[in-house]
Amino acid sequence: TKRVRTRDLLLAKERGEKWAMLTSYDQYTAALFDTAGIPVLLVGDSAANNVFGYETTLPVTVDELLPLVRAVTRATKRALVVGDLPFGSYEEGPTQALRTGVRFLKEGGCHAVKLEGGRRSAAAIEALTQAGVPVMAHIGFTPQSEHVLGGYRVQGRGAAAEQILADARAVAEAGAFSVVLEMVPGEVAKQVTHELDIPTIGIGAGPDCDGQVLVWQDMAGLRTGAAPRFVKRYADLNTVLTNAVRQYAEEVRGGVFPASEHTF
Ligand code: KIV
Ligand code: NA
Prior knowledge:
3-methyl-2-oxobutanoate binds at residues 45-46, 84, 114. By secondary structure, the chain is α/β, with parallel strands linked by helices. It has helices spanning 6-15, 27-35, 47-50, 62-75, 94-108, 122-131, 146-149, 161-174, 186-195, 216-219, 237-253, and strands at 19-23, 40-43, 80-84, 112-116, 135-140, 178-182, 200-203, 211-214.
């Protein structure tokens, strides 16, 4: 199996092929998604919420994320693994971004990094790309800026669509190999996707993006409670796991497990 390259994603766009991306934070899901044919895996800073139990993505650090990046990269043979630069690790400018990006490739072993911001991050994207670190950009709703944006809200409605387009052009011009569009109107995502040569990856951005991304615990129904509108639940892992754990505990209490076949 050959590793998926950023170039393959550009060629897929030329052919009009769509593809799915998922987050992964550990060995088992990484190997499973890789084997299932997911071409791009993101070790998201959403590990803040989905692994470490923080309320937002803001607290997670480079030192917390790098071991997860290593685990996911080691467990895959084919997927392009993207490591997400956490809040505070790149915003000071190209020098800081480059320092962090190089750590992700050297210590994490991933093949690309992702960072948030359009025009404001263009210089960092250019420095990273020039230095050999491929960058996936992320515009529209950017969770690391939630306190400035006023919570989880659709970006680029009405006249603000021009801002999304300007950000998209800026990241493409700076050398990003792809761009995540989060919570933007479907029509805006469609326009960006048609205008750019690089693939767009939607999350809450409608059906016209080149790729789609979801947090795996959301799409697999491990997370409980109300999910955002853009999430589709393809399984109910929460119920599956709850039932398994309950049955195990019950069988231990009742002396049913372990049985003779589990005993030396
Ligand atoms: O951290 C993350 O999971 C993400 C994706 C959902 C795009 O940034
Ligand atoms: Na993220």
